[in-house]
């Protein structure tokens, strides 16, 4: 039987069903198995407390028979559900059908005084969604001013309280101000910046602050909002100024700020006093100078310290405390800094060696000051024997005191030795070189007994270049021992023609603009030089202008007499300037009685004669028409007697070119 009862109170999945059901079953079992007649009450009173179930609340008004059915008292169930259910044992009020679906026991929420008010609700055992109870009927639902939302209650609220809700904004589709209007949800505070912008332009759904304000649409001055009321204003220690915030600050942040010093009229220290603005640090040089004496308004550093007004010594400040002092490796000296350094920078320093009385090496020992490098010539001489106090290099080595040979030092170890391509020789360096420099070297050929090519073979010494004239002659046939050029070629031994060497390959040949000729070079040129050249015109058969055309040879100059005559009509082959011209044309009337100059007939610089009376050319009247006297010529016209030298009824003419008299 117990098995059957347990089966009724347990679901197939083993989950406990309604505990009221279990209590009813247990009550029936108890009543059935253990019910006993009611005890006798001698004086008509019974202390119900003695049963372990004191009567409280509504139970105090109930009749005994309301709970103890059929006069059975002992074994009556103490559980609420044994009576207060639809199938309960007594006629007690029943759990309404609209009761919240819950696995709670009655006493978890109710008291014996009545079903209402419910002193608490244990939501832990409540079955179903929040809204299944909080629907305004079973339990309080959303208020009239609740945000319109399709969310479940527990998306924002907890079972502890409605307030302190955490709102999930992800499902919100409307604007912020549709809820954050001061009624449905908190809106702008009374001191909020006046704006028509939506909340999410500056705020996020996580919290009101921090807010990221969008200044792009702001048209008024910064201080219209940043006045300490609407928005953060200037702090108490802010530099006193009436300038707008954006003169120095940006809308991104207060700092860093770029202060505009251009409008500042006061001194630097009026603000940079450590209170209004950063002042001098504790280790600053003690000075009453104003900041801008050394610093700029761009930054504190680099500072350009003005030493102009300094009257004290350098070390009064450059003592390692007020300002940088001497480094640890500084030359030990009690001299003031400005003996070597300038006020511009520590380096370069010009060390004043004039006051030095000791030797160079007393300081230049590698400890106090730079000493000799490892590859220095081994010497015990003092530095100033070769070096100067200006610099280490260039050094002027004093060879005068050297008594050994050059190679005793110039051996490649102590000092530079012979390079790998040096002429093989056992001679000492000073045979060719001087102590001033390696080059130029003056090789002493006087002692050479061999031929030039024994050394000048391209290996021991420079040999013939690739374009050298092919010859087996020794170098000194043309060259001297002083230099390769100029070379004096000895043509006396040449038996071939000039062009056998002067062909443009072996030796220089004819240039491109050379007169076209097959004659050998020595017809015109000498072996001394190409120019001057003496041209032999005796064998020329062509005309002058065939060569003297301005291309092959010099042609007529620009102001030359205009003529088609060949050059040799006036010039000769010896020179251009001695002119000898004889008229040979049949049109030439012959020499006149007086000596005429060229320009008497050739009025222009041309061969063509401009006849004064061209209608009579080439007769005498072409020039002498004006001299004609018709009366002396039997009134014949000038045209009739146009040829003055003509014969008129006589065997000989009356006039001649050489004598125009009538005789």
Report on this model:
By secondary structure, this protein is low in regular secondary structure. Helix content is 5%, strand content 0%. The chain has helices at 2-9, 19-34, 64-67, 598-601, 621-624. It starts with a helix and ends in a 39-residue tail after the last helix. Mean pLDDT is 80; it is low at 1-40.
Task: Describe the secondary-structure layout.
Elements: H1 2-9, H2 19-34, H3 64-67, H4 598-601, H5 621-624
The secondary-structure element order is HHHHH
Overall mean pLDDT: 80
Estimated structural class: little secondary structure
Number of helices: 5
Low-confidence stretches: 1-40
Distance between the termini: 200 Å
Question: What summary fits the major beta sheet?
Answer: none
Report the portion of residues in β strands. Answer: under 5%
| Net shape | elongated
Question: What is the β-strand count?
Answer: 0
Please give the oligomerization state of what you see. single chain
Radius of gyration: 68 Å
Helix % is: under 10%
Summed up:
The protein is mostly loops. Helix content is 5%, strand content 0%.
What features would you highlight for this structure?
single chain, 663 residues, little secondary structure, elongated
